[in-house]
Structure formats: C-alpha cells, structure tokens
C-alpha cells in the first residue's frame, strides 16, 4: 500500500481566511503608491479613505495612471484645473490608461461620479 497522500481537488481545498479585511490593506497600498502616504513630500493625489467616494473626483484615477506613466498625466495641471469636472478627470485617466497602458475600461464614468 502507498503511504503518500492524494492531493485534494481544488473544490476540496480549504483556504485560510485572511486575518484582516483586505480593504485596509488595499487602502494603505494605494495611498503609498500614488503619493498619499504620510511620509510623502508631495502628494500626487487626494487621501484615499474608502473604495468609493475617494475616487469620485477623478483625481485619484489620474494619480494612479501618473504612477505608471508620469509623463502622460501632469498631476500639477490636474490639481490646478479649476474648470475640470470629475467627469473630465475620470475620462482623462481612463483614456490615458487605455491608450498608454492597454488597460480596458471596465466601468463607466457615470458609475463612478453619479453614485
């Protein structure tokens, strides 16, 4: 008789639940990555405190794209544009993400700004 144990099927595997909610970890990562961490000299974005309202102005989407292609999104201009609407900012971020990074638009602008 074989003494080796059979591998459980994927449906039989039991994965450990995370010890903490994923949201706080994601929020810390986002704030650190796009320039909202407390130790950042110049903040590129607005503080991200949740995964909903913090994104409605579009500034944080622009900052996220800026993180990967800083030459394509000038955050000083984004923050200084008094006439820009949240729709303008989200459109800028989404269009640049598609054109420069190949990131498809998986959510509509209205789903973000009209919530």
Automatic annotation (TrEMBL):
<keyword id="KW-0812">Transmembrane</keyword>
<protein>
    <recommendedName>
        <fullName>Calponin-homology (CH) domain-containing protein</fullName>
    </recommendedName>
</protein>
<keyword id="KW-0009">Actin-binding</keyword>
<dbReference type="InterPro" id="IPR001715">
    <property type="entry name" value="CH_dom"/>
</dbReference>
<keyword id="KW-0206">Cytoskeleton</keyword>
<keyword id="KW-0175">Coiled coil</keyword>
<dbReference type="GO" id="GO:0007097">
    <property type="term" value="P:nuclear migration"/>
</dbReference>
<keyword id="KW-0963">Cytoplasm</keyword>
<dbReference type="GO" id="GO:0007010">
    <property type="term" value="P:cytoskeleton organization"/>
</dbReference>
<dbReference type="GO" id="GO:0031965">
    <property type="term" value="C:nuclear membrane"/>
</dbReference>
<dbReference type="InterPro" id="IPR036872">
    <property type="entry name" value="CH_dom_sf"/>
</dbReference>
<keyword id="KW-0677">Repeat</keyword>
<dbReference type="GO" id="GO:0019894">
    <property type="term" value="F:kinesin binding"/>
</dbReference>
<dbReference type="GO" id="GO:0003779">
    <property type="term" value="F:actin binding"/>
</dbReference>
<dbReference type="GO" id="GO:0006997">
    <property type="term" value="P:nucleus organization"/>
</dbReference>
<dbReference type="GO" id="GO:0048471">
    <property type="term" value="C:perinuclear region of cytoplasm"/>
</dbReference>
<dbReference type="Pfam" id="PF00307">
    <property type="entry name" value="CH"/>
</dbReference>
<keyword id="KW-0472">Membrane</keyword>
<keyword id="KW-1133">Transmembrane helix</keyword>
<feature type="domain" description="Calponin-homology (CH)">
    <location>
        <begin position="20"/>
        <end position="115"/>
    </location>
</feature>
<keyword id="KW-0539">Nucleus</keyword>
<dbReference type="GO" id="GO:0005856">
    <property type="term" value="C:cytoskeleton"/>
</dbReference>
């Amino acid at each position: 008789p074989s003494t080796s144990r059979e591998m459980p099927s994927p449906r039989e595997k039991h994965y450990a639940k995370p010890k903490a909610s994923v949201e706080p970890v994601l929020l810390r990562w986002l704030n650190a990555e796009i320039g909202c961490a407390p130790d950042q000299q110049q903040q590129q974005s607005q503080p991200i405190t949740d995964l909903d309202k913090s994104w409605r102005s579009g500034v944080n989407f622009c900052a996220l794209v800026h993180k990967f292609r800083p030459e394509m999104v000038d955050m000083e201009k984004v923050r200084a544009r008094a006439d820009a609407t949240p729709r303008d900012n989200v459109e800028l971020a989404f269009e640049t993400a598609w054109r420069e990074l190949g990131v498809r638009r998986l959510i509509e602008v209205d789903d973000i700004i009209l919530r």
